[in-house]
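Researcher: Re-running this chain for the archive, since the previous output was lost when a drive failed. Same request as before.
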Amino acid sequence: MPTQRSPAGVTVWLTGLSGAGKSTIATAAVDALRAHGVHASILDGDVLRCGLNADLSFSAEDRAEAVRRAGEAAILLASSGVTAVAALISPYRADRDRVRARHAEAGVAFLEVFVDAPLEVVEQRDPKGLYAKARAGHIPAFTGISDPYEPPLAAELHLATARMRKEECVDAVVAAVRSAATSR
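Model: Regenerated structure tokens:
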């Protein structure tokens, strides 16, 4: 009797500044995917910092390691047929490119999603008060203020959250996942 191949999962990698809407979109997208019968799970950068990445600082090297670990976790999930929705600032393009390359090696679909909101918008939102603390000098090496954010050059999806409604963003993510899953 032939064995059935398990369904291929997809990794959706949401990247952008703090406050751009990554976690909000990730949560709503996972709910929408589950409503469509898709097994989906969130890998949220803030949550990962409490466990998997608790031993890491915010240095460039440790940020690279945090992205690498999240990428490996996403591969494990997607290889098991789960759509992994990763929501991490992941500020450096080279780190995201390495995660994309690892996905290619593993034969796992990877969708980079640029959750794009201008600095002035995320500073106005500032849900955690981090930008105010960074501007006051209380948070060194803060992405977007004293540390760079390198936007994707060719993301599969670009969500301009200052202009798009949450529902539009979620619909775009769901459509991209469904397209990636059917093209495999």
